[in-house]
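Could you help me review a protein record that somebody else here produced? This is what I was given.
***
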Amino acid sequence: MFFFTGCVILATGIYMVIKGRNKNNNLKKYEDENRLADGMVYFKNIEASRTHGAKRNLYRVITVMGFFTGLFGLIFIGYGVNIFTHTM
């Protein structure tokens, strides 16, 4: 039971890390394409700038949470393997 649950949690963590990194890379690509000569990034209005910053922080948090979720899944897998080897 712990082994299966750990695998599901690990897969969820890996998915979160991959999704967060991909979204963050898309935001970085937007920044590179719309960078002005002085190094600032061009946005249509201040609301777009705030939304961009908020999304970037959100995807960073999702990536970090995915890492720790995956670590928790590995602990579950290890516990499940430990129980399985002691019952044999």
Summary: The helical segments are 2-33, 46-87.
